[in-house]
Amino acid sequence: MPSKKIGEIMIQAGWIDEEKLNKALKFQTQQGGLIGECLVKLHYATEEQVAQALAKQLGIPFASKENQILNPEKGQGLEKIIPEKFARDSAVVPLFIENNVLAAAMTDPTNIMLLDNIKLVSGMEIQPFISTKAQILKVIDSFYQGGNLIDRVIEKGVGQGQGEMSDSDVITPDGKLDLDKVIVGESKGAQSIKLVNAIMKQAIAERTSDIHLEKFDEKVSLRLRIDGVLYERSAPPSDLVDAMISRVKILSKLDISERRLPQDGSFSIKYQNRIIEIRVSVCPTVFGEKLVMRILDKGAVELNINIIGFEQRQKEDFLKAASAPNGLIFLTGPTGSGKTTTLNAVLNTIKSPELNIMTLEDPVEIKMEGISQVQVKPQIGLTMASGLRSFLRQDPDVILVGEVRDIETAEACLKAAMTGHLVLSTLHTNSALEAIPRLLDMGIEKYLLASTLLCLAAQRLVRQLCPECKVPYRPPQSEIDQFAAESMINPLPDLTRLTFYKGKGCPKCNNMGYKGRKAIYEVYFNTEEMKRIIYKDADVQKIAVEAAKGGAWNLRASGWRKVLAGVTSVDEMLSVTVTER
């Protein structure tokens, strides 16, 4: 019996419908390529869905980080059998060896030439697994990244005697620093360049968001912010710090002679087949200049609304609002709480060729295909408010405004929402419902806010327990009582069998007990009764009570759900949430 076609499998799984398949087939006729690629290009399906359908069609196992199969076995020498360059160039990752058969994950196991090349390189028979290119490359990054790069460069020092490359050897034609090429040489300048490269490589491997380098009176401090927490790393020699900061200034096109004033800049690097943006801030201190580099790695961010942390009810409410033809959606939270990632994941979910989506950001942190993104430039008059007014002449369906900071921007958002556009934006408030008095204080009329507001949400990031070393425990009575009082779960689970988890620490999480972060949310879809309260007196407590009647819950309650599911620990959750007053 012949196997089903990819399109049939995906329709049967409920991922697409007949209409989308027909449009994809028409697109395939015009543009060429495989039907799965066409479905992804049209944003009708994800790479993972196509890979799962292909696995089902061919009868080959699907490997992913979620099902724990895309996890190379340690201690089998796989990194020597399949060299990193071959793995990266071919998008292949070795998984394990059994009876002289090598299991390897790849995107296209029907590629006979690729299978022959893997056999030739490994000298073994191949058992193929199917995975997505994005996940394969991410696993390659972590699997082949061994040891401490910074320590190795510091220990090796200078004097390798292999000749010296010029800067032109490591800068790509489009002006990006290529970290895959190594500068060698005997000069102090060459070592400072190697150290900067090593710090960036190690930071990327450790999922770092910010690099902090600064000199004090008697020591040098190098810290990496991983999952929101700063960790000390081996500091470079004191006499190289100024040269390292000058190197970063040159890359960022900053003035290397100016050491009295703060400077901001940015540059791009090419590393392991992906482009990474680096935002740079240099600030003078009493001991010299302090350097902070923010890493904006699109490859490290999965814009998948199903995995960022929404509970099912919250996701449905948010997408219900995001599917409306017009109205306002506000996401609140402090700086660094993941608001940009969430809003981009929502846009990634709703985007289609039928929608004109435009964003106005400061700065554009995640570049997305199929969406018009604009960066504000106040120095030439391109502000949030003026840009938004110009957007309305671009016939947009959906508009993302990076942040509402003033009455001018708030009124422009309101006007856009009232004239048939869906507007998403962010505010800095402690909770979702506090956005209402904040907007009213700015000068927005209650009746206008009540009629245009679709959804209010807030979020925080909690560190996830390392799946390799987390251990269950029976919580003490104080934690059980707090869970029962604050979780807003109805009905409550059996409290006599309650199990929570905590991290023990292992090599895979650098003995931290945590690995990665997950968002927790509170999402309030604006019901008719809530609109009436906003219109009447905008009493936040009354709105919260009404929302709870409808089944919504606050940040602390979301946190307890993550604790119950073993995603995070009680201490971590309590540290980022506050109880409602």
Describe the overall structure.
With 581 residues, this protein is an alpha/beta fold. The chain contains 22 helices and 19 strands. It has a seven-stranded mixed β-sheet with strand order 4-8-9-10-5-6-7, with helices on one face. Strands 13-12-14-15-11-16-19 form a seven-stranded mixed β-sheet, with helices on both faces. Strands 1-2-3 form a three-stranded mixed β-sheet. Helix 7 (112-122) links the parallel strand 2 and strand 3 (125-130). Helix 9 (149-156) runs antiparallel to helix 10, helix 10 (188-205) packs across helix 11 and helix 17 packs antiparallel against helix 19. The longest helix is centred in the middle third of the chain and has 18 residues, at 188-205. The N and C termini lie far apart (64 Å). The relative contact order is 0.07.
Write the layout of secondary structure elements.
Layout: H1 6-12, H2 18-31, H3 35-41, H4 47-58, H5 78-81, H6 84-90, E1 92-98, E2 101-106, H7 112-122, E3 125-130, H8 133-144, H9 149-156, E4 177-178, H10 188-205, E5 208-215, E6 220-226, E7 229-233, H11 238-251, E8 263-271, E9 274-285, E10 288-296, H12 312-322, E11 327-332, H13 339-350, E12 357-361, E13 372-375, H14 384-391, E14 398-401, H15 407-418, E15 422-427, H16 435-442, H17 446-452, E16 453-465, E17 470-473, H18 477-486, E18 500-503, E19 514-525, H19 528-536, H20 540-549, H21 555-564, H22 570-576
Helix pairs in contact: 1-4, 9-10, 10-11, 14-15, 17-19, 19-20
Q: Give the proportion of residues in helices.
A: 25-40%
Average pLDDT figure: 87
Ends apart, CA distance between termini: 64 Å
Segments where pLDDT lies below 50 for 5+ residues? 158-169
Please state the overall shape, judged from the principal axes of the Cα atoms.
Answer: globular
From the alpha-carbon coordinates, what is the Rg to the nearest angstrom? Answer: 26 Å
* SS elements, strand count: 19
Our estimate of the beta-strand percent is 15-25%
Number of helices: 22
Strand line-up of the largest beta sheet: 4-8-9-10-5-6-7
Biggest sheet layout? 7 strands, mixed
**Structural class of the secondary elements?**
alpha/beta
